[in-house]
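Action item from last week, closing it out:
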Amino acid sequence: MHYTGIVWIPSYELYTALIQVTQGCTYDKCKFCNLYNEIRFKVYPLDGVINELYPKTIEAGALTIFENTELCNEIQNGNFKIATKKEISIEMKTFIDNCDINCNFFANTVSNTVKLEDKPPKNLTKLSDILGKSINNLNELEIQKYRSSINHL
């Protein structure tokens, strides 16, 4: 994260994420403060701020339905429809194909249909290829049987 000018953060917030969206002070006339003397107030462009927020890691989990939960009841009552494993894999492949962030990518929990892991400087093309091949070979019943055997994460 890039910071311009004086950065002031109280000791009790030492480990708090700090995102600089402005510089200086809008008032800058307080008699008790010299923190921003001679630093003109400035708002940073939103696109520049967003560009600095790229994550170091993306983790993609999968929805696991557990008995005796409100979501399980909604599914049983027909108020919630779960995406198929194929639909989920297609959605993840679409995300990976359009992801331009150089970061760690993990989809390797017990609940993921296809286990994926990639770390920079590699690229996500390999993961997209793995997903593309697996989409055509997904057996929904086999996966559902496996997922039903998961008692906890």
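Closing note: Residues 1-53 form one domain.
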